[in-house]
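Project outcomes to date are best conveyed with an example. Our students and postdoctoral researchers have been running inverse folding experiments weekly, and each run begins with a structure described purely in tokens. The record below, which covers 245 residues, was selected by the lab manager from last quarter's runs and is presented without edits.
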């Protein structure tokens, strides 16, 4: 899939980056061209989300989600495959990707995906064991078995869709992206930030430190779940003063 795309057609830049899995390049490109998030591969209309998932690029996939939203995982390509479908049906399925989609993002799925899970169950178990410690692998396999037992039942489908729709912040990077959006940090706002923040604004550990402190102290969704040692009063005061909250 990846090789044939790159050799046969001229691809949009964001599609190339998704195929290559370069999360930092994706972040930089979408920061400058956010409209490109919804570019598609010309042959089968695969989105960047499809391609990152198919190629097993978990960090690239999470980076794309920072600029989009969870519903982007439900979009289908020309062949009616969801992001989860292509992740599962990849020639080299990535445990990191399908575990994230199944157990963390909790992507809803129907009979087509369920049949794929059953068909390739043994392969997925092998991949899970390769990617995790023994205890973690056993837990993931139990989760997979539970999915296979309950998936397809109306009550399960309703609960799955409800869980999927809940706001979820799975990482500090995702929290930072949410905060940047909610705080409307456009160029004018960023120009008012102190240099020590402004110089670090593109998702570095220092910017995470400042924005995490803001999240925890201001009860941003997800912020209360973060460790308290991330909180720094100096960081919080600097942000409040800079953007006149």
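After processing, the design step wrote out the following sequence:
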């Amino acid at each position: 899939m990846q090789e044939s795309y790159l050799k046969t057609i001229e691809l949009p830049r964001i599609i190339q980056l998704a195929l290559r899995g370069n999360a930092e390049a994706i972040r930089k490109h979408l920061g400058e061209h956010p409209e490109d998030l919804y570019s598609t591969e010309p042959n089968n209309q695969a989105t960047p989300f499809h391609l990152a998932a198919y190629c097993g690029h978990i960090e690239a996939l999470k980076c794309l989600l920072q600029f989009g939203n969870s519903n982007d995982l439900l979009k289908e390509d020309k062949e009616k495959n969801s992001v989860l479908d292509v992740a599962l049906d990849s020639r080299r399925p990535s445990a990191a990707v399908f575990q994230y989609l199944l157990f963390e993002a909790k992507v809803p799925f129907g009979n087509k995906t369920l049949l794929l899970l059953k068909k390739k169950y043994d392969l997925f178990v092998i991949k899970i064991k390769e990617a995790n410690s023994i205890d973690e692998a056993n837990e993931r396999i139990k989760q997979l078995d539970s999915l296979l037992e309950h998936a397809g039942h109306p009550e399960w489908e309703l609960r799955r869709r409800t869980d999927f729709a809940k706001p979820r912040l799975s990482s500090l990077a995702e929290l930072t992206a949410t905060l940047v959006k909610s705080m409307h940090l456009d160029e004018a706002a960023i120009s008012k930030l102190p240099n020590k923040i402004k110089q670090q604004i593109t998702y570095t550990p220092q910017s995470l430190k400042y924005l995490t402190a803001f999240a925890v102290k201001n009860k941003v969704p997800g912020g209360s779940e973060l460790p308290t040692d991330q909180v720094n009063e100096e960081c919080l005061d600097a942000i409040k003063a800079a953007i006149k909250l």
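The mean pLDDT is 76. Residues 134-150 form the longest helix (17 residues). The training component of this project remains on track.
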